[in-house]
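User: My advisor, Dr. K., asked me to get a structural model of this assembly before our group meeting. I'm new to this, so sorry if the format is off. These are the inputs:
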Amino acid sequence: QVQLVQSGAEVKQPGASVKISCKASGYTFTSFYLHWVRQSPGQGLEWVGLMSPRGGITSNAQKFEGRVFFTSDTSTNTVYMELTRLTSDDTAIYYCARDHAVAAGACEHWGLGTLVTVSS
Amino acid sequence: EVVLTQSPGTLSLSPGESATLSCKASQRVGSNYLAWYQQKPGQTPRLLIYGASSRATGIPDKFSGSGSGTDFILTIDRLEPEDSALYYCQQYGSSMYTFGQGTKLEI
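Assistant: The format is fine. Below is the predicted structure of the whole assembly, which you can bring to the meeting.
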């Protein structure tokens, strides 16, 4: 079955960067886009961006432009999201999610999330 | 960017009733690429509906989606206490996807 296993919680200082991983299994890694969605404490879902694990195709929400970077390692079936210049507003659970098998863009499978806390 | 506005913010209903949740887009959603998710406290979101009206795998037929263009509806029939959750719409018809702010359903 499809599994997305994310890296553990992180605590960062303002201005630092964080890099979160998401290891996929149970399907052909390069066949589906992976999304990143975040949820601030007590708040709703916010789409951060997506990438094709094949590489070369990424998209991100405008508010993260120039601050978020996506990479993948096809040898380990892992995607990474790096968020730079962190502020307290970036404190959130970050989820990776895989595209639906038919409806590319809808997130069918989700990781359990990685809590990122930004605090001095 | 396409802004999605969900209403009502909170909906309180009794078991057995039906719920109607609205999602309005600031501009037309391309190809009606609109999804609905359910999120219970402490859990990850669960895809309910994609393409505005297609149920995801394993989703019971009490959940149904409708609408097109800028106006979309999620209907939940025969409400049960376990349907209490936050419900989010998401559009994926443009290059930058967006979520609505959510509707809290209390049974």
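One thing worth pointing out at the meeting: DSSP finds no helices and eleven strands in chain A.

User: Perfect, thanks a lot.
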